[in-house]
Amino acid sequence: MSAETTQLRESPSIHRLVLRLQEILCSCSKSIEGGDGSSVSELVDFLETVSGSALENPEDEVAQNNALEILSEIQTFLLSATLDQEVIDALSFELPKVASKFAGLSSRCLEIADGIIDHFIAKCSPRDMLSILCGALSATDRPIYSSGYVASILRGLSKVFISLQRRHFEQMKVAIPIILNVLKAACSELGDEDTEDLNLFHRAIGIADSIRAVCAKFEGRINEKFHALLGLYVLQVMALVSFSAGHKVSNCLPLVSQLSNFLPYCDLSYLGLITGSDVDAATNIIIEEVEDDFMSCLSYVKHGASLSVIWGYIYDDVAQAAGGDMSFVRGELQSNQTNRWQAVGMLKHILASTDVLWELKKHAINFLLCITNGNGTRNDGLTDCSIFLPSLCAASQAITKVIIYAPNTELRKNAYEALKRVLADTPTSERFDILTALLTTSDSSSMILLEVSCTWKVCRECP
């Protein structure tokens, strides 16, 4: 047990803690002004002991009050008009991260931590602060339940983006993978009914707002790159929001509407999203500008693209926010078989995912039934279906999983009908290739029987 921890437990008096903090701050300032920054580590240790005690004992009112008071004292110190810039610069490398560790304790602690980071952003180099905040965000010693910690740093990054003076795209393309990877990890820690995810995602949307603000400063090729980057970022966050819906899709509605507002700005249409063409176009723009491993942080963009359309299919307000016309999209997919095959391939990302709620899968199946209602055009022999065969196979496999594991009879019946229609919409030779793939990969006798039955019915009904 450290000496600081012992002191906190044996001497809970907040007055004594504040006096000790003031002594450390005074000593630290003098050391920095004298050219020695090593004393900053003593300050960091003290603050982490206070925050750690509060995080480990969430029901301990004394520990919580101690943390709030100490964090407030740090903010008061930093706001002093007499504080030397040299001291601020030295503390900027450590205190944003340390202050963020308090952020998850309470809304008031989050507010103060935000203020501390804001102060450093106002006083220090934006480029340095970008590096510092990215380092804090990707640190391995984040608190166990880190949504507050992440939320505080995300807000700081959204402000830093706007403050950057040059090389905006180059610096953002380094930060975005860190942001998305940490956001994904933080989301996995949240419970089904955790309200902290709302604040976390609002901060993530704040990042999108900042990217859009920076984008507005440029024209031409650089503007195109920012549009593509923003679009892919929004789609990734859309997927994460959808995965974090808890037990009710309505929980996500305000966030989904906010994210959908970005789609028309990024030239992402519902038709382009559900066929994947807009996603591919944005990806092709970005992939020329980034490192090979950049795209790994965007692993859910196609989930986000198809989910964006399904959200609009469910809620008119979302479609309106996205500038989408669902009647037009349905008509285009019903009348164009190539687009329909592409849409089926995109929907597999929803149907195959274990992270997507059954409620959303239900609407995805209903949408699939809507676009394959039998009134649309069929292959005239001129369109090569073979290039779509892998995605159609994967989609068919995803639909069979829904048939087997769906929680209610209605969804199983609708999924069965959807599988029949997908097979019926496929040319004969490719249809049997899909069946072969389904039978080869099936791991249960019931699934094999289901697939054989489905194909037999399709063969009877289709030439």
TrEMBL record:
Signal peptide: none annotated. Pfam families: Kinetochor_Ybp2. It comes from the Eukaryota. InterPro entries: ARM-type_fold, Glomulin/ALF4, YAP-bd/ALF4/Glomulin. This is Aberrant root formation protein 4. It comes from Manihot esculenta (Cassava).
